[in-house]
């Protein structure tokens, strides 16, 4: 199945790879145009924001891709690019699991039913920004949450059973072959994500309204959380209520000592 991309750039598909992020960096070095996408059915070395949190899934279970863009200088990079990518992913996924609505967890996750459904990893090399996206589509089993026996992630298939998805043959253009149907669902989702991302980056209205739209989907907004400014492993935490997002993508937390803005860290429930 071919994938339509509004970025007017190639979409490469491979069955297996080490990492779509590394593949994208190679393609950029070779002169591939902005907006080029590399999508894989399986990657051996998928990684998340932290080294100890690799992205693990079976072949054909996840939507795994990286897209890249070049910018003249740092000031030209769209503000809050990772969060806005999360907004694009969240909006695209909603069409597959409605009436369930996803939420964007600061700084780089998409949640459904209080569990992680997708993650975004953004890396910069010189003047090029690489955006890696992983969406759990068909997984049914995940590691539990710190030995609690409760999985900390979910998938489209768990939120909305696959049978109703595959039954939408007319809308999704699916075949009777279950394997082919699964392939089609992942590629159709990729098209939807790319279309939403194009809108986020290239539509003036979205450029000026992203904060407002994101805050309607902000995970744990107006709820109390424990926040670790130093990220994973730190014991330095603050307790407060998530109030919103700053102009540069900062997380705004109302604490006992007043409002604080954080540019890095981790939300702990």
Overview in brief:
The chain has 269 residues and is of the alpha+beta class. The chain is built from seven helices and twelve strands. The model has no long low-confidence stretch (mean pLDDT 88).
Structural notes for this entry:
33% of the residues are buried. The strands form 2 sheets. A 7-stranded mixed beta sheet has the order 1-2-3-7-6-5-4. A 5-stranded antiparallel beta sheet has the order 11-10-9-8-12. It has 2 domains: 11-215, BirA Bifunctional Protein, domain 2; 224-268, SH3 type barrels (Roll). The mean pLDDT is 88. The protein has helices at 20-29, 81-97, 156-159, 162-167, 169-172, 178-202, 204-215; strands at 11-17, 37-43, 62-70, 103-105, 109-112, 115-125, 128-136, 224-228, 238-245, 251-255, 258-262, 266-268. It is an alpha+beta fold. A hairpin with a 5-residue loop joins β9 and β10. It has 7 helices and 12 strands. It is globular, with a radius of gyration of 18 Å.
Annotate the secondary structure layout.
Elements: E1 11-17, H1 20-29, E2 37-43, E3 62-70, H2 81-97, E4 103-105, E5 109-112, E6 115-125, E7 128-136, H3 156-159, H4 162-167, H5 169-172, H6 178-202, H7 204-215, E8 224-228, E9 238-245, E10 251-255, E11 258-262, E12 266-268
Parallel strand pairs: 1-2
Antiparallel strand pairs: 2-3, 3-7, 4-5, 5-6, 6-7, 8-9, 8-12, 9-10, 10-11
Helix pairs in contact: 2-6, 6-7
């Amino acid at each position: 199945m071919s994938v339509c991309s509004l970025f007017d750039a190639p979409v490469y598909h491979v069955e297996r790879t080490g990492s779509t992020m590394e593949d994208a960096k190679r393609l950029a070095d070779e002169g591939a145009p902005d907006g080029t996408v590399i999508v894989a059915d399986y990657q051996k070395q998928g990684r998340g924001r932290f080294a100890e949190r690799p992205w693990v899934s079976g072949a054909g279970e996840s939507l795994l891709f990286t897209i890249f863009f070049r910018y003249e200088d740092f000031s030209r990079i769209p503000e809050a690019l990772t969060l806005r990518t999360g907004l694009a992913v969240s909006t695209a996924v909603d069409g597959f699991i409605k009436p369930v609505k996803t939420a964007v967890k600061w700084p780089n996750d998409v949640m459904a039913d209080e569990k992680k459904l997708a993650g975004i990893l953004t890396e910069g090399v010189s003047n090029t920004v690489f955006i890696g996206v992983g969406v759990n589509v068909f997984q049914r089993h995940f590691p539990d949450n710190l030995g609690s026996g409760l999985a900390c992630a979910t998938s489209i298939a768990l939120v909305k059973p696959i049978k109703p998805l595959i039954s939408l043959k007319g809308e999704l253009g699916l075949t009777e072959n279950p394997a082919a149907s699964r392939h089609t669902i992942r590629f159709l989702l990729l098209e939807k994500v790319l279309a939403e991302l194009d809108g986020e980056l290239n539509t003036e209205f979205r450029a000026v309204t992203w904060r407002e739209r994101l805050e309607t989907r902000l995970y744990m907004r107006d709820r109390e959380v424990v926040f670790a400014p130093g990220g994973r492993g730190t014991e330095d935490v603050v307790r407060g209520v998530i109030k919103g997002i700053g102009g540069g993508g900062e997380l705004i937390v109302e604490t006992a000592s007043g409002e604080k803005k954080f540019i890095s860290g981790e939300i702990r429930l």
